[in-house]
Predict the structure.
Amino acid sequence: MSLPPHLLQASRIMEEFAASTGLHPVRPDPERYLWTDAFAVCTFCGLSETIGDVAYSRMAILLVDQVHRTLGRHRRDDKRTGWISGFSDAEGARHPTIGGLRIGKILPERGRDDPCDERLEWDRDGQYFHYLTKWMHALNRVGMVTGDPKYRRWAVELARAAHTGFIAAAPDGAGKRMYWKMSIDLRRPLVPSMGQHDPLDGWVTCRELLAAGAGPDPEQERWLMEASEDYAALCRNSSLLSGDPLSIGGLMADAGRIVQLGGGGTGQAEILERILLSACTGMEIVLRRGSLALPAESRLGFRELGLSIGLSAIRNLAATAGSDPVLKRDPLNRYIRTLAQYLPVKTTIEEFWMNRRDRNVRTWTDHRWINEVMLATSLAPEGFLTIRAPGSQRNHLID
């Protein structure tokens, strides 16, 4: 079958990613990194749905298993062994996410008595909340593709671990707070500040898992609703405005997920208004700074491609804004029309990073696979952007 150029490029990138990182063919020492692998799982799912080739669905399933058996277990250079949950091998395999998942950074996590070095912390292992939410989303996508309920169960177990590990009582005793980075065992914060968009990620992801269906355990639904209320409270007290392209793209993608989940109501319209207004202002900041006109060695591909992925969500919203009862009202409609004017930026970013000359710089090669997978996701974004509300049919691509 002849594929459109963007799908052909995306499929080639993903096949090379699988081969080079030890996924297929399998290597005993695969290179796994949770953020990259979450986008890769979603993109494999999207390619399977779009092209109709179950080989990509199987690749997504293999990647989920490899991530769990690598990042759900302690590092080889750690004196601790086995599943980070502390479960036995058999029980850990049944509940691979119940203790959370490591980031997959090069260096081991900071020791309990070691001083904090902000520069080193970027390369040290641990757990990131926003990486965990991306993996919950990836698991939910695999559940959609396969129809297997275990993937949603694993996503909910991970959601519970993340909520328990990253949320704590505020120092003044009033309300709750979140940590940005936790230790591998989720027992101590490695970076005590809160990620700016972490509460929003938590709220949207809990809603996504609720929409996927509670399954046989009603306790899951009750707990997800309580967790989403915690995240909503934290969202109300935090600014969403950012001048970082990746963060702006994340806001746009979250807006797309919220609209797909539906439900309407004042609460949904209010959070959408905040998200889209912040995205509009953020885009003004990015373009005013001129960072997208800099040479390749002064740019980070994956951050710009995150923006490109988010603009795909805006393209989808713009296509439905006239008929959606929430989106067709101002100011939401006005914000979407404003953001739609930036859609040519998506093409500009993709064309820049598809140029081999611009990928032959250290800012690309030093982060090769996060850059490459984000490029593939930008070229074929529906695997990452698509979620389904209650009652929608799953695609049983694997029998």
